[in-house]
Automatic annotation (TrEMBL):
Family matches, as CDD domains: TM_PBP2 (cd06261)
Name by which UniProt lists this protein: ABC transporter permease subunit
Region called Disordered, residue ranges: 12-33
InterPro entries associated with the record: ABC_transporter_permease, MetI-like, MetI-like_sf
Segments forming domain ABC transmembrane type-1: 99-311
Gene Ontology biological process: transmembrane transport
Cellular component, GO annotation: plasma membrane
Species of origin: Agromyces kandeliae
Main location: membrane
Amino acid sequence: MTALIGEAAADVGADAGPPASRTGPPRSPGRRARRARYTLTVLAFLLPSAVPLLLFVLGPMVAAAWISLTEWNLLAPAEWVGLENYANLLTDPETADVFLHTLYYIVGYLPLVYVGGLAIALALNTALRGRTVLRGVYFLPVITSWIVVALVWRWLLNPSNGVVNSVLAWFGIDGPGWWTDPAWAMPSIILASAWKDLGFVMVILLAGLQAIDPELLDAARVDGAGWWRRLFSVTLPLLSPATFFVIVISLINGFQVFDQVYAMTGGGPGGATQVVVQQIYDLTFRYGRAGEASALSWLLFVVILAVTVLQIRGQRKWVNYG
């Protein structure tokens, strides 16, 4: 009996043929064709945005990187100087000054625009009559040209006949020189910038507030938490994703501040408001040093990239996405 079973097993094994390959059957031509069609479809949809990105973002970045390694006055042919422009900038005290002025602007601007935008968002998140109209009113400066806003604030802060100093004089206060005084020129720009950007911050934070579950606030209220306790223990932690977005965007915009500086002070008085992008503009179009200007723009890019990466890595400690 055992011999018969062994012979039967051998016959079955012989009929089964060689063992199947572990790699599986080869992919059919039809599957490869479907994958290729899918890839071409994705590329076709990305093309309208990829072409402008290549032409107007990546292309100029590569060109600026090459120009930063040359000496070029926009007229004569560029001459290769290697890393000399970077060395000159890093040893020039004026480079440190413009970065410090930019940092001064950010330190004054960011808390002001965030706290102001948060206050408006909290007010408009309540059952306030006419809040829809108020949202549009507060957002209107965001879509207004910076030149218009800068000229209006330049008139409001005029030291001799401006509205702000006239109101202060009515209370017996001698108003400062604002944008004509080196000590007050940057605060003038910060004030105008925060006023213009309040609407943008308000919209982002208001969207975050409306995404908070009201039951959480009701539970805190039932437990006896007052308004301030609910704000710091419930609202702000749950608002941290919107806060993170606002901080990242505001910091990037702060490092690139230019329009309001150019329109209100032009970097003066006495260079008190000379920021990085204003310096890039002056090096290029006033002094004909496009190579140094391109090098400075790349230094600014590296600083912005480093700050943004630090924020993204640090968000894990305080941003609550749950």
